[in-house]
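Inputs:
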Amino acid sequence: MNNFEYLRAESLGQAAAAAADPATKIIAGGTNLLDLMKYNVERPSRVVDITRLPLKDIAETEAGGLRIGALVPNSDLAYDERIKARYPLLSSAILAGASPQLRNSASTGGNLLQRTRCYYFYDTATPCNKREPGTGCPAVHGQNRIHAILGTSQHCIATHPSDMCVALAALAATVHVTGPNGSRDIAFGDFHRLPGDAPEIDTTLRPGEIVTAVELPPEGFAANHTYLKLRDRLSYAFALVSVAAALRQEGGRVVEARLALGGVAHKPWRDEAAEAMLAGKPASPESFAAAADHLLRDAKGHEHNAFKIELARRAIVRALGQAAAGTPQSQTDKRIR
Amino acid sequence: MPTDPDGPPRSAGKLALTITINGEVRHLSVAPTTVLLDLLREHLGLTGTKKGCDHGQCGACTVLIDGRRVNSCLVLAVMKDGAEVTTIEGLATNGRLHPMQQAFVEHDAFQCGYCTPGQICSAVGLLGEGRARTPDEIRELMSGNICRCGAYVNIVAAIEQVMGAEDSRSAAA
Ligand SMILES: Cc1cc2nc3c(=O)[nH]c(=O)nc-3n(C[C@H](O)[C@H](O)[C@H](O)COP(=O)(O)OP(=O)(O)OC[C@H]3O[C@@H](n4cnc5c(N)ncnc54)[C@H](O)[C@@H]3O)c2cc1C
Ligand code: SF4
Ligand code: FES
Ligand code: FES
């Protein structure tokens, strides 16, 4: 780890002003930043500790949703009674990720801003456009089993590793941010970006902007939802493919569907066209398969990850079936039914 | 102005840190880069807490901070000013093993023992959380602690025993 100056932020304004310097990094739980600093992937000259800022509440909104402070730990969020009752999809997705210890440290804001687990990004002995822009992407022709099948570019095929964010995408959350030039709201779908020709940029946050909260709209799809995560071991492993599915149904027909995937793209992959295809259709394997095919219409495999396309197709159909039946995937009993 | 990350730190080296470790208040001065795990092991000689992976992937470094289990390898010490840390060395009271330590001994819940301090601290954290009831739930909520020797069956048995004892005590109360 390189040397750095430590600053304990006393106010949001102070933190945002400090964070505008590109050599400065915000730290919250530290579970991703310190990991990367120990590998010299991140080498900030100053680290700003925001953990004393008052961003730790989960509060009701006037619209009837919930506003989650950026410093709410992942575990507190997952086990919050209001979240469990009204947004069980979010609770489930969080509990599918990391470990109890990590979830105790990890914050809501940090989870959004966590970086890819691409092996080359982590290995400073190799080139990587995300770590060192312009050096190339060895994953395209290298070890790419865990990499993306949707929305890739020739410059980067990395995935966003979060589970929580897949649920937040499906739930159409809003991210509240504050920066040196004031506050603004970002729709969840616009928060993370695709790699294009600038894979070093993960999100649409501007310099100095800090996530202050994530807001959930009133509709939580509590009756019909699931988070189905497929991975190399049953716990404490990142997703190869994950699916957040949520439905509103009437008389065996889908009224509204939400569908987002993890482990397949540079951002949580929500497809509103595939969702729209389900509206008005019977909640049947046939409609689910058609939506899956549509979502994966542009999927492109690389040497080691082409299996993800069929895996995703089947996971979508299974997840929509679980959601429709009101039998969400258990994150304890890992059998997939 | 950004400085060269390899250059000297801009703040005058060490920072004051007041932290309670196993009930004892410590006034320390630490470099910003000092990680809690290294503070415990290298600076304070509390080598019970183990370094396995140093990257959050194994759980060997698990300690309790303000009663919550965390991976001490991914914590900057200076951020925990004012906190209370409990390590494996702090679990026994008046020379008597903590019930979880005792249960690990009784169930032979280790072989090499390297993961054990982390397993026990994690299990104590699990108990405090009160969210595990069934063996399946214990397994899932202990999945942040890897045991290379594969002592998992006996670890779950040890935890079940302590939970059972707690349940019958609260039922009697
Ligand atoms: C072994 C291991 C396994 C894991 N498995 C999973 C998994 O299966 N699923 C999963 O989803 N996650 C997993 N994680 C990742 C974990 O969820 C993240 O590390 C965690 O959510 C990051 O939160 P943090 O508060 O610790 O972030 P930090 O490490 O403090 O920060 C991460 C980044 O976010 C920035 N940041 C933090 N807060 C803010 C803010 N409020 N505004 C702006 N920027 C901010 C920081 O500058 C930094 O760049 C795993 C991690 C480890 C180490
Ligand atoms: S996939 Fe992205 S993160 Fe991985 S090596 Fe290529 S550019 Fe780097
Ligand atoms: S040493 Fe901390 S998790 Fe492995
Ligand atoms: S007892 Fe050897 S690693 Fe667990």
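Chain B touches chain A through 45 residues (CB under 8 Å). Flag for discussion at group meeting.
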